[in-house]
Design goal:
By secondary structure, the chain is an alpha+beta fold. Helix content is about 30%, strand content about 40%. The protein has 3 helices and 5 strands, in the order αβαββαββ. Strand 2 and strand 3 form a beta hairpin.
Amino acid sequence: MNPQMIEEQETVIRRHIVFYGWVQGVGFRYRARHAAELYGCTGWCRNNWDGSVTMEIQGTESQIDQVILAVEAGRFVKIENMDSKTIPLVEQEYGFQTC
């Protein structure tokens, strides 16, 4: 089966994810925005006071996975841990914002 057809059959979900490690001051949010736009996801991300980064991202499971892999491929980014949970979808959200 064509991989593109499989992706079209996947359900859209929204995830709230907190990333820990070397995730601030290393281009994490820039890469997240670029990757989200590339893979067709919406949402936002922001730095937290404790050095972590919070992201809410909406797309299919495979789109979200691709975004995370693209961010992690950053030269100085090192994700050591992440907490993730599925949350309700946000209707009529367009684009991906960095806060």
